[in-house]
Amino acid sequence: MQDHVIAVDVGTGSARAGVVSAEGRLLFRAEHPIVLSRPRADLGEHDSENIWAAAVSAIRAAMHGAGIAPERIGAIGFDATCSLVLRRRDGTQLALRKEASHSFDTIAWLDHRAKAEAKRCSALDHPVLRHTGNVMSPEAEIPKLMWLKANRPDLWSEGGQFFDLADFLTWRATGSTARSLCTLTSKWTFYGHARPGWQRDFLALAGLADLPEKGGLPEEAHGVGTPIGRLSQTAASELGLSTAVLVAAGMVDAYAGALGVLGAADPSARNQAQVALIAGTSNCLITLGREPVFGHSLWGPYYGTIFPDLWLVEAGQSATGALLDHILRSHAEGGEPKTALHRRVIDRIRTLRAEQGPDFAAGMHVLPDFHGNRSPFADPALTGVVTGLTLDASFDGLCRLYWRSCVAIALGIRQILDMMTAGKAPLPRLHLTGGHMKNPLLVELYADVTGCELVVAEDTDAVLIGTAMNAATAGGIHTSLAAAGQAMGPRGRIIAPDPARRAAYERDYARFLLMQRHREELRRV
Predict the structure, then answer these.
(1) What are residue 323's phi and psi, to 5 degrees?
(2) Residue 479: what pLDDT?
(3) What is the mean pLDDT of residues 398-413?
(4) Per-residue pLDDT reduced to its tens digit, 411-443
(5) Where does the pLDDT of residue 264 fall: very low under 50, low under 70, confident under 90, or very high at 90 and above?
(6) What are the phi and psi torsion angles at 111 (to 5°)?
């Protein structure tokens, strides 16, 4: 009886796999690290074979921990960051750089080497840019491919297959070069709402007229909830599974999280907007609707990216968890940003707030754009700002800076929500998933600073559950994504904002906006 699925989530630093029942119960979750090379602060590279090996290890460990027979697995789904995998036509790795035992053939999502190409792309006069918020991000695949063609013509000439990372994983699992509509619409400027999907006049303007042929890109794409194919004999042997297992079309990791937390909600409900907040290394805010919504710095609207009849809009922050890690690394009383250090800082902040009151870090204010600003400014060149620093190099000084950085992240979320909802009432309901669920400071702040009700599904991994919904639909365990969402969606607890803290955060928000204006004035001097 094939009544379970495997979901695989490949993030920035690890591959996670879970065995999930038809009811959405996560039987077991396993994780395996992947290598991320950072030759410079603006570069990030993976080895795709290392990623596949990590996925295999995680899947095998999850199956062992779940303790169920392989015959009960009906389908497998993959989600991943929007990283760019380079392969030759014969499928062999096309390495940007080799180091020790690794061939770094994958440009990571966070890599900003293509900032100049993104700027040139943004200046093009083409309707495609309406679907990128009028500004092309260096994190998208088109600028990265422009960089590759201009700076590594040797690799471009050898190229034959360029994959979004999720599509690479489905190819590695099946041998099929089919691509996902989820990845192509959101990261490759493919149209889900029109045919043909590839806007070849835009590609020509970007200097990539030969991209579909050079990248082995098909004219059609597979929607979420549809199968790409079955496990190949090679992949089935590696994973310890049967070739009868279907492989679902891949997903961008943030969109898998959005499906996981919004899948159980009624997408046609009009009385209150539902916004997924996928919060980890970076933050993504995602909402779905029946009508396209355009706006500066909004990624989308993309049609059919998750549900076949809905438009998706995304906004986000480029560095959130990564910012807090950086604060810990760079402070004299900090260190390697492991969970234990985060927990020690969080516990001390709670003590300081209890002893000294909510103003224990008064006078310190932060703009969190240490890795550029994705929304609302769509400017990867923006930098962070900290005001109110003193000579305090103590551990408590670190805690104050950490706390005010958390506040700044939440203030940025409020600003993005103001833009996405255009001030419409009532306030949206935020559905939180990702690593920030483990940070009680951020959980509190996301409700109190935005004034929104926050739904937190703490007893599961919503990204894995979203990918499991995709797999269960592709495998025929559920008849549609909507049915899978109703059956498998997590039921979270609701956290209401504390009205007693509203006035203080209103003042913080006013300062936040003022600091942004002052930063722009300084840039113009």
Answers:
(1) -65, -45
(2) 96
(3) 98
(4) 999 999 998 887 676 889 999 988 899 999 999
(5) confident
(6) -65, 130
Q: What percent of the chain lies above the pLDDT cut of 70?
A: 98
How far apart (Å, rounded) are the C-alpha atoms in residues 19 and 38? Answer: 32
Q: Are 448 and 501 in contact (CB under 8 A)?
A: yes
Predicted confidence band at 79 (pLDDT cuts at 50, 70, 90)? very high
Write phi, then psi, for 367 (nearest 5 degrees): -105, 125
**Beta-carbon count within 10 A of 123 CB:** 11
Confidence (pTM)? 0.90
Give residue 431's identity as a one-letter amino acid code: H
Q: What angle do CA 480, 434, 255 make, to 5 degrees?
A: 35
* Distances, alpha carbon 184 to alpha carbons 223, 230, 425, in Å: 10, 21, 33
Question: What is the distance between the alpha carbons of residues 294 and 311, in angstroms, rounded to a whole number?
Answer: 11
Hey, which CATH number is domain 321-417+505-524, 3.40.50.300, 1.20.58.2240, 1.10.630.10, 1.20.1270.90? 1.20.58.2240
Antiparallel, parallel or unpaired: β 73-80 and 246-248: parallel
Locate the domains of the chain by residue range.
4-253, 321-417+505-524
What is the Cβ-side half-sphere exposure of residue 51, based on CA atoms within 13 angstroms? Answer: 34
Query: Residue 318: is its pLDDT beyond 70?
Result: yes
* Three-state DSSP state, 21: strand
Nearest to 162 by CA among 146, 151, 138: 146
Q: Is domain 4-253 classified as CATH 2.120.10.80?
A: no
E strand residue ranges, 54-126:
73-80, 84-88, 97-99, 102-104, 106-107
For residues 419 and 503, what is the distance between their CA atoms, to the nearest angstrom? 21
- Residue 475 dihedral angles phi and psi, to the nearest 5°: -85, 0
Q: Which two tokens stand for residue 59?
A: 């899947």
CA distance 189 to 211: 12
User: In whole angstroms, what is the distance from residue 255 CA to residue 260 CA?
Assistant: 8
CA distance 327 to 407: 14
* Neighbouring residues of 104: CB distance < 8 A, sequence distance ≥ 6: 37, 45, 46, 47, 95, 96, 97, 98
